[in-house]
Write a structure and sequence with these properties.
CATH architecture: 3-Layer(aba) Sandwich
Strand order of the largest sheet: 3-2-4-5-6
Distance between the termini: 12 Å
Number of helices: 5
Largest sheet: 5 strands, parallel
Radius of gyration: 16 Å
CATH class: Alpha Beta
Order of helices and strands: EHEHEHEHEEEHE
CATH topology: Rossmann fold
């Protein structure tokens, strides 16, 4: 792994962005009625859980939360690994008629979001799916646009955005670094 070029968000900036996103979700949806937050594993689920908690504290309401493992819904499954690591999807409620807030850490090509939407539809037919991301780095290959964005960070294809969370990595920050010559994202 190559060294970080820059830290583009520290822990305080990440927290402020998630609080702002939570407020925007509440405002757009006029509260929490019918709202479900679903994060894409791994770091999207961590951020989604935080957003659900922030919304719950602000509105003094329980916000249902779930997590998706999109491994088998990916369109590049054959190219990522011979033995892909599969985590458990944790969606315990019927999503029919709900407003699903889909959360991911970084929005790039849109392919992860497409795979997540395919999986969400296996759990019912939501009234609406809205997308929240901590970082939007551009370079879309599919017509996907986030409804809630923590920070827009223009990048080149030679760069990688790394979101690090306390729960997953023991530290809290977002970095940008150069892609190693043999590295695939």
């Amino acid at each position: 792994m190559t060294k970080a070029k820059a830290v583009i968000m520290d822990a305080k900036q990440m927290d402020r962005a998630l609080v702002r996103i939570a407020h925007e979700i509440i405002e757009r949806n006029k509260g929490t009625e019918g709202l479900v937050v679903v994060g894409i594993k791994r770091r999207g689920s961590t951020l989604g859980k935080r957003i659900a908690g922030i919304i719950g504290r602000i509105e003094k309401a329980e916000v249902p939360y779930g997590a998706l493992d999109i491994t088998f819904y990916r369109d590049d499954l054959q190219t990522i690994a011979h033995q892909p690591v599969v985590n458990q999807t944790e969606v315990s409620i019927d999503l029919t008629g709900k407003v699903v807030i889909l959360v991911d850490d970084v929005l790039y090509t849109g392919r992860t979001v497409r795979a997540a939407i395919d999986e969400i539809l296996d759990f019912g037919r939501p009234r609406r799916i809205e997308l929240a991301v901590l970082i939007d780095r551009g370079h879309r290959e599919l017509p996907v646009k986030a409804d809630y964005v923590g920070k827009n960070v223009p990048t080149s294809h030679k760069e990688i955005i790394g979101v690090r969370t306390t729960e997953e990595d023991g530290e809290e920050k977002v970095i940008i670094r150069e892609r190693a010559a043999d590295e695939v994202e």
